[in-house]
C-alpha cells in the first residue's frame, strides 16, 4: 500500500472541490496577514473583496461557460444598493450586504433573460451593453446616486452591533474575510451540486445536455443570477468598508480587471480566483508605486507571459506541476 504524496494531494485539490490542506493554508495566510502586515490592511481588504468578485465571475464563466464583459454591472448594483440602504433605511451592515446581493441578483435575472438567448460575441456585447446602461443610469440619476461625485454621506453601523469600523481597517478586514469564507464555502457546495455539475455539462456540450432532458437555459439563468448575487456581495462590501460608491464600480475597467484576474488565475478552478486576484492586486499596487504613469505595462507583460506559457492560468500550471512531481 502506497501513501499519496503531498504534491499529488495538492494536484487533486485543484480539480476536486473538497476541503483540504490548501484551504487551511489560505486561511492561515489570511490570518497571518492581519498580524504581520497591519500597515497594509486597506490593500489586503481590497484583495479579499476582489477575490469574492473573481469567484462570482468564475461561477458564471468558468463553470457555466457564460461569456461576459460586463460583470461590473453586478458589483456596481450591489455597491449602490448597499450604500443607498445605509443612507436611507438602516446602517446595519449584514442586512445591507443581503440587500446588495438581492439587487444584483434581480439585475442578473432580468439581464440574463436576454443575455442567455445568445452566445459568443453577441453574448459578450450584450453583457457590456447591460453594464453600460446601468452606468449611464447611475450617472443621470444624480439626485439619488450623486452622479460622478460619488455616493457619500452614509455611515455603517458596527458589525453585529459590536465591532465598530475603525480607521486602521481592522474590522473591515475581518468582516471582508468572514464574507469571503462564506462565499467560498457556498461556491464549493455549488460547483459540486446537481446545478453546478449540469452547468459544467452545458458548458462542454449544451446540445447533448438538452437531449438528456436538462433545461439548459433555466439552469444557466439560475447560475447567472447566483453569480450576480455574489458579485453584488463584493460591491456591497466595497461600499461598506470604503463609505463611497463611484461610477467606476459600474465601469468597463472594473469588468476588464476581474476578467484579467481570472485569466491570470485560471477559470473553472476556484483557486484561480484567489491566485489571480492576489497577483493582480499586489502587482498593480507595487507597479503603480514605482511608476504611476506606466504601471499597466507590468500587468500587460504578465498577462502575455501567462497566456503564452500557462493558458490554463496559474492554478492550472500549479496543478500540472504538482501532479508531475507527485508521480515521480
Automatic annotation (TrEMBL):
Keywords, ordered alphabetically = Cell membrane, Membrane, Transmembrane, Transmembrane helix
User: Subcellular location, in the record's words?
Assistant: Cell membrane
Question: Membrane spanning segments where?
Answer: 24-57, 69-88, 94-116, 172-199, 220-238, 295-319
Under Gene Ontology molecular function, one entry of this record is: branched-chain amino acid transmembrane transporter activity
How does the protein associate with the membrane?
Answer: Multi-pass membrane protein
Gene Ontology CC terms? plasma membrane
Q: Which domain of life is it from?
A: Bacteria
Q: Which PANTHER family match?
A: ABC TRANSPORTER ATP-BINDING PROTEIN, HIGH-AFFINITY BRANCHED-CHAIN AMINO ACID TRANSPORT SYSTEM PERMEASE
Q: What is this protein called?
A: Amino acid/amide ABC transporter membrane protein 2 (HAAT family)
Which organism is this protein's natural source?
Pigmentiphaga kullae
Amino acid at each position: 500500500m502506497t501513501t499519496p504524496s503531498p504534491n499529488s494531494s495538492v494536484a487533486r485539490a485543484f480539480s476536486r472541490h473538497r476541503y483540504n490542506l490548501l484551504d487551511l493554508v489560505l486561511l492561515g495566510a489570511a490570518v497571518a496577514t492581519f498580524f504581520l502586515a497591519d500597515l497594509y490592511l486597506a490593500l489586503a481588504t481590497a484583495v479579499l473583496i476582489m477575490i469574492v468578485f473573481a469567484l462570482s465571475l468564475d461561477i458564471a464563466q468558468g463553470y457555466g461557460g457564460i461569456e461576459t464583459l460586463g460583470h461590473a454591472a453586478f458589483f456596481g448594483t450591489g455597491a449602490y444598493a448597499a450604500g443607498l440602504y445605509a443612507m436611507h433605511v438602516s446602517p446595519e451592515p449584514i442586512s445591507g450586504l443581503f440587500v446588495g446581493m438581492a439587487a444584483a441578483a434581480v439585475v442578473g435575472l432580468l439581464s440574463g433573460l436576454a443575455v442567455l438567448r445568445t452566445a459568443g460575441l453577441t453574448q459578450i456585447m450584450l453583457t457590456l451593453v447591460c453594464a453600460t446602461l446601468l452606468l449611464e443610469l447611475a450617472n443621470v440619476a444624480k439626485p439619488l446616486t450623486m452622479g460622478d461625485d460619488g455616493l457619500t454621506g452614509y455611515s455603517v453601523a458596527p458589525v453585529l452591533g459590536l465591532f465598530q469600523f475603525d480607521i486602521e481597517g481592522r474590522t473591515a478586514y475581518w468582516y471582508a474575510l468572514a464574507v469571503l469564507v462564506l462565499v467560498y464555502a457556498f461556491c464549493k457546495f455549488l460547483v459540486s451540486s446537481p446545478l453546478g455539475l449540469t452547468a459544467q455539462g452545458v458548458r462542454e456540450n449544451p446540445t447533448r445536455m438538452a437531449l438528456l432532458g436538462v433545461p439548459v437555459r433555466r439552469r444557466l439563468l439560475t447560475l447567472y443570477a447566483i453569480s450576480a448575487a455574489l458579485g453584488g456581495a463584493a460591491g456591497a462590501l466595497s461600499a461598506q468598508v470604503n463609505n463611497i460608491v463611484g461610477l467606476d464600480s459600474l465601469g468597463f475597467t472594473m469588468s476588464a480587471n476581474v476578467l484579467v484576474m481570472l485569466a491570470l488565475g485560471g477559470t473553472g478552478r476556484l483557486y484561480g480566483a484567489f491566485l489571480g486576484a492576489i497577483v493582480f492586486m499586489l502587482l498593480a499596487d507595487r507597479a503603480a508605486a514605482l511608476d504611476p504613469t506606466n504601471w499597466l505595462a507590468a500587468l500587460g507583460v504578465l498577462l502575455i507571459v501567462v497566456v503564452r506559457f500557462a493558458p490554463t492560468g496559474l492554478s492550472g500550471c500549479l496543478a500540472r506541476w504538482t501532479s508531475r512531481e507527485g508521480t515521480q
